[in-house]
Prior knowledge:
Elements: E1 6-7, E2 14-15, H1 47-88, H2 95-113, H3 118-141, H4 147-171, H5 177-203, H6 211-242
Antiparallel strand pairs: 1-2
Amino acid sequence: MTENKAFCSRCGVEVEPHKTKCPLCGTSIQQTDEEPTEYIKKYPDEPAIKTEKVGRTVKRKRILIWEVISVSLLIPLLITLFIDLIVNKSVTWSLYPISSLILAWFVISAPLLFPNKLPFLYLGEALPPAIFLLVIDKIEDGQINWFLDVGLPIEVIVAVIAAIVIIGSIKVKNKGMNIAAFILFGIGITCLGIDFVVTKHVTDSFGVNWSLYVIASTVVIGGFLLYLHYRLMKNTKLQRKLQI
């Protein structure tokens, strides 16, 4: 069995294993064959606990915000309802603001209650406006007049374009000004669809008018943003390759 050699850390002289000091310079010799002393931590590690606590804290804050907003919307709803009942002895005009407040509650509640569940978030933002438009149409005379011809098609256009923009924004790898461009393109196409639906309902003919100005502006600005984004990204990659 071979003995471990010991060397002086200062002058490099080999010394006998049992020596504790260098015979040449007197420097203490470190004993490498000894087992290292186990380090006893004063405080236990708890990063996972901290992460869980942070997650719970964020969730509680969202719930608290949701409760405050719910109460804030409930107060004007009840005031409006009571005024209508006191004045008219029945529920009449208050249905319009009550419907609007309920719509606002659903739209605000979706991202607060389902922030990480995209399907529930999407349904929570898409379905309430459609139901709201149906209710508003029914309030007028108890019949469905313009909902099927105007309200529902516009809601479908907005929902579909929003879904395409959201999915495109999630799938794209390099995010930046291209996301703003996608949103502008979505706004332009949405305005084009709304103009088409309204024109068909009013004039009973196919055509578009004011939306052409909107879509022209969004295409130009969105295209410029895409150019800036991918041009800057290309220059950044080139600089990294050249190590500039």
